[in-house]
Amino acid sequence: MSESGGRPVRYLAAASGRVRLRTLCNLRWLAIAGQSATLFIVYFGLNYRLPFLACATGIGISAVLNVVLFLSYPPSHRLTNRDATVYLAFDVLQLAALLYLTGGILNPFALMFLAPVVIAAATLNLSNTLILGGIALASVSVISIVHKPLPWASGDSMDLPQLYQAGIWASLVIGIGFTSIYAWRIASEGARMSAGLAATQLALAREHRLAALGALATAAAHELGTPLGTIAVVARELERALPENSSEIEDVRLLRAQAERCRAILARLADPGAMLGATTRLPLGALLDDIVEPYRGEDIEIAVETQKGPEPQVWRAPELLHGLANFIENAADFARTRVCVQAAFDDSEIRVSVEDDGPGFSPDIFERIGEPYVTSRPGHYALGESEIGPGAELGQHAGMGLGFFIAKTLLEQTGARVKALNLPGGGARVAVSWPRGVIDGETAPAAPKED
Asked: Which of residues 123 and 9 earns the better pLDDT score?
């Protein structure tokens, strides 16, 4: 059974424009304000001797760069990964220059090396994050060896033991590495989940559009039925009134035949079973037969087994239709000869399971089934561990590991619990269960509202 599948979806590359230039400019203005305040307080307030002019020049260069960027680009301009890396690398080197002039890593503000690296980890891909992390680590290492004395009160000096200085260097290196990896992993999970949820919304929107079309077709059938009936009656009366040798008799017969054909077409459109929305209910077994029908073929047998007894009347919710259809389609793709859809119910819950006799879920991804971009479908592309989101524009999400995620998310919106497992004798099973009254209640199931 597959962890993917479904309809085509297009994605924008995550590498193009995850952060606005204006956002980084605002952060730089914040850094410039902090650096300026610290410089003036230390030099004029505490009367510590430091290279004031050189430090002010370094801060001024950052301010000039910000002004130039502000005048050169619109507020909504977004940076590519490469541009953002260059931008943040300048901040790292500017901070390194200021620390070189004011004591190197002995300066308490050496901790600020973490800021640009964490920003990179949260917004850039892994390769650019590693590049910026390498620049930060190199800068820390250089200023730990070569730097101006730490500013101190006149006549005093502060000489820390070499071992303690080595400890400061190690703490900075470990801090940069740990916080950047932590921030990148969190951002990666968030980006993947956001992209997966966007695909879910697209799939659900399609189902709702189909539901709206079904409702519109039914309404049109009822509205057009009466005038077409009138046309058919008038045509029949004209046919009776005209003599057999009349030149118009064939035209009248054709008119009546076409009117009857239109009425037959509208009768099929008006069939409540043709609607896709959550406005009709069917017995559970009939609903499953309806979902399974498009996937029945010559090679794979798809059987529907329903528990005996009065079946619950289940709403044809778009979320339910799309979710179960996705599981059945994936089972049919991976089954060798047979797929079995089983339905059971009691006073407390309704259960539907989809089993196939295929190879089952791959062991290396079994624990992550249901997450976006997790797939074992051969020959298709899925995100690697080093990618923060979809890295290129994709024509479809088949094989991307989104199908299972979308189906699971949609079914959970109807109140379902979804569980996947491998069968002892081979094959896979996806079990879905609902509490009674959720999908067979008096009202159609509604997606839960966000807090």
From this structure: 123
